[in-house]
Design goal:
Blueprint (H helix, E strand, L loop, with lengths): L2 E7 L2 E7 L3 H17 L9 H49 L7
Antiparallel strand pairs: 1-2
Helix pairs in contact: 1-2
């Protein structure tokens, strides 16, 4: 169920509907506000330039995080495949070991 959340960024209030919790949306708003301030805005006002720079910075961080997550997922899949192959090899070796043969 969507939560109605009012957040404030650069002196402007925005009412949003979000599936996330109020606490999470406040955290998102705080990050957005910090990024606006880092780009030359303030908590009370931000120019279009500061808002545009903040948007670019957050998009950059998102793309880098997404790329890193995709690389980690690919590595995990490769390790799972390697683990499966090694388990199969161990099972074959165990089955072929003279001490493991059934009489």
């Amino acid at each position: 169920m969507a939560n109605r959340v009012t957040i404030q960024i650069a002196g402007q209030q925005y009412t949003m509907l979000a599936d996330e919790t109020v606490e999470y949306m406040n955290e998102v708003a705080e990050l957005a506000q910090q990024t606006v301030v880092e780009c030359g805005g303030s908590t009370a006002f931000a120019s279009t330039r500061a808002l545009a720079l903040a948007t670019v910075n957050l998009a950059d961080e998102y793309i880098k995080a997404k790329t890193a997550a995709e690389a980690a997922e690919a590595k995990c899949r490769a390790l799972e495949a390697e683990n499966t192959a090694l388990r199969q090899q161990v099972n074959r070796n165990s089955a072929n070991h003279p001490g493991n043969r059934h009489k």
